[in-house]
Design goal:
Length: 445
């Protein structure tokens, strides 16, 4: 029964889910219509919000391109390939391949979402190389599914934001002092939800694996290793490109800053330092700057989806947060609708669900917090709900619907050489299962 339902979801998504860019365009017009109906704004108002927000994610877009490029370039280094091959060799069957992949991806994303997003895709690709008869689409979906726990982990932007006094501005005055991570990331509730997902999801992806006659194995062309180049160092230019001195100096400088960062800021794995680590680890492992340059050129081929689509999502966010004459936004209307039907018992659950809906249109943890923090935090206090619980409900909702939002899947899809429709049918099952786990967590605790 479970396998039949999974196959039905995969078939449905393959038939009706358009290319991720068209998906972003369709979402754009859906938000325009919702803004007209729910906020009473005119068409030109929505166009202005869209245009004003269109370039708001330029810095973030570049960060995401670098997550893809530096992560992929690092993975092309022989040492990283060997580690992935070692992990891949532990899988002895298609079932164990998808189980190991999703478990490693979940742990890696809990440590840091940027790190986990790339590691999950790279490990999935390596599993496809080593395990015969494994469904490649499910492997990549399993690697991407790690993203469902990121906001409850060490890089969760909302719990980290409210853990310092400087991050309390977006709570609508609900918080006057910082909330320590012992009450958010390391709370019993959050740990229980995370552990439950870690235990259950490997068995879920195992149960999703299609029968042999429906299994889609990887196109061998996607797994071809580029031929090892022979680098000559005859001319002055070639000698500089392959210089061990220049390579050693730039590597030393990069790692000196990494050590300085962690000595002065503690375990701060923000997106910039993750990319910095990826880049200089890649330079170190490739052995020369010329080899690293060629690895980056190869890795950059998969970044087109990010470049094209992220401005449209920024425009959608602009419309979601754009205010009407009364100071109400579309995201605010959605959030307040859930608040109006909540009690002290159901408020965390409804906050989680509303955050999942808003995340579909505002797929950014920081953007989501800016939209929902000033609404949900004061409402929670009025109902007697602990601020930490409200904040984590928003955080989990933000991560949850990433499973059916192609925005975050683009780097993984770029590495895998697949399209969104190839994996989203399986991700629907992940959405349902993890949604039930998180909902139960907020109702039980």
């Amino acid at each position: 029964m479970f396998k039949k339902f999974t196959n039905a979801c995969v078939t449905l998504v393959n038939k009706y889910l358009p290319d991720p860019f068209l998906f972003a365009v369709i979402l754009t017009f859906i938000v325009v219509l919702l803004g007209l109906v729910l906020t009473g704004q005119g068409p030109m108002d929505m166009v202005k919000h869209w245009g004003n927000g269109f370039w708001a994610l330029l810095a973030f877009s570049m960060q995401m391109v670098l997550v893809l490029v530096t992560g992929s370039a690092m993975a092309q280094a022989p040492a990283v390939k060997k580690v992935l091959q070692t992990i891949g060799s532990t899988a002895k069957s298609p079932a164990s391949a998808v189980m190991i992949t999703v478990f490693v991806a979940l742990v890696a994303c809990w440590i840091n979402w940027g790190f986990g997003l790339i590691i999950g895709a790279l490990l999935a690709k390596e599993m496809a190389r080593q395990v015969k008869g494994v469904d490649y689409r499910l492997l990549i979906a399993a690697g991407y599914s790690g993203m469902v726990v990121w906001h409850g982990g060490l890089s969760g932007s909302i719990p980290l934001t409210i853990s310092s006094a400087a991050g309390l501005a977006a709570t609508g005055g609900a918080l006057t002092e910082a909330v320590p991570t012992s009450l958010t990331i390391f709370s019993l509730q959050n740990i229980a939800i995370t552990v439950a997902i870690l235990i259950i999801m490997p068995f879920v992806v195992k149960a999703m694996h299609p029968e042999a006659d429906k299994t889609v194995v990887v196109d061998p062309k996607l797994l071809l290793e580029p031929e090892q180049k022979k680098y000559l160092a005859k001319t002055p230019a070639e000698k500089m490109e392959n210089s061990k001195i220049l390579w050693g100096l730039v590597t030393l400088m990069g790692f000196a800053y990494i050590v300085f960062h962690f000595m002065t800021k503690g375990f701060d794995l923000n997106l910039n330092i993750v990319n910095f680590i990826f880049m200089f680890t890649g330079i170190l492992l490739h052995g020369t700057l010329r080899r690293y340059i060629d690895a980056v050129i190869e890795a950059a081929k998969g970044a087109s989806g990010i470049v094209l689509q992220f401005p449209f999502y920024a425009g959608i966010m602009g419309m979601m947060t754009g205010l009407n004459a009364e100071g109400a936004s579309l995201a605010g209307v959605i959030s307040n609708g859930f608040v109006s039907i909540s009690t002290a018992t159901t408020f965390p659950l409804f906050t989680f669900l509303s955050a999942g809906i808003v995340n579909f249109f505002v797929p950014s943890g920081g953007g989501q917090w800016a939209v929902q923090g000033p609404i949900m935090m004061p409402a929670g206090l009025e109902l007697g709900v602990a601020p930490a619980k409200t904040a984590m409900a928003i955080a989990w909702g933000d991560a949850w619907t990433n499973m059916i939002q192609p925005f975050w899947a683009l780097p993984a899809l770029g590495i895998a050489g697949l399209g969104a429709r190839d994996i989203m049918g399986y991700c629907v099952i992940t959405l349902i299962v993890t949604g039930l786990i998180v909902s139960a967590g907020f109702l039980i605790f």
